[in-house]
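---------- Forwarded message ----------

FYI, see the 3-methyl-2-oxobutanoate hydroxymethyltransferase record below. Original note from H. follows.
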Amino acid sequence: MARVRLHHLQAAKNEGRKFAMLTAYDTMMAGIFDSCGIEVLLVGDSAANTVMGYSSTLPITMEEMVVFAKSVTSGARRALVVCDLPFGSYEVSPEQAVASAVKLMKEGGVHAVKLEGGQYFVPHVRALVAAGVPVMAHIGFTPQSEHALGGYRVQGRGEAGQGLVADARALEAAGAFAVLMEMVPTEAALLVDESLSVPTVGIGAGGATTGQVLVWQDMLGLGSGKSARFVKKYADLRTVVAGAVSAYHSEVLDGSFPATEHGFGQ
């Protein structure tokens, strides 16, 4: 099947259709999501939390993101693969942003990048697009700025919603092909979506956006502890995996694995 391209996402926006986006960090899961028809795979800097065990997304490096990107692009045959620019790889200047994005595209094989921030990053987005790099913008709650924002807090409530609209319009004008909104009120997300010609993607932003994205470990119930309000668990993989591993452990200890059928004859 043909690769999902930017114009396919734009057509969804134009025609009032939806698309789905999931994070992915490895070849096997990318292949599964791809085969299920997921239109966009995000090589998220959330790998810092879900794969590497960090308490935030800040420590993950460009070199680590390239490895995750390679793994995902080798498993995705149809989906559009977008990769986060990690913290510290684009903020200094538009030139730094272009150099980082080129690295992710050349070495990681991704098709587009995502960066966090509002109007301040308009020159960065403009430079990236001019260099041939498709850009998904990310506004609302931006995890890389969690310390500046005072932690994980909903953004854009009340009059601040107009600031989201202004940011989104500026980023669209700079050339962003889509705008992702995280943890913003449903009403604010609707205002942004109605103000833009390009597709919007939501995570904790209600149902008005063209696309939705979730972290796959959250969506499939692999983590422990309380989930964010915007997460729907479609499976309980933590229980399934723990049950299978416990069974394996028990069978190794009692000698029932490996059985005769798991060995080789002369």
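H. also flagged this: Strands lie at 19-23, 40-43, 80-84, 112-116, 135-140, 178-182, 200-203, 211-214.
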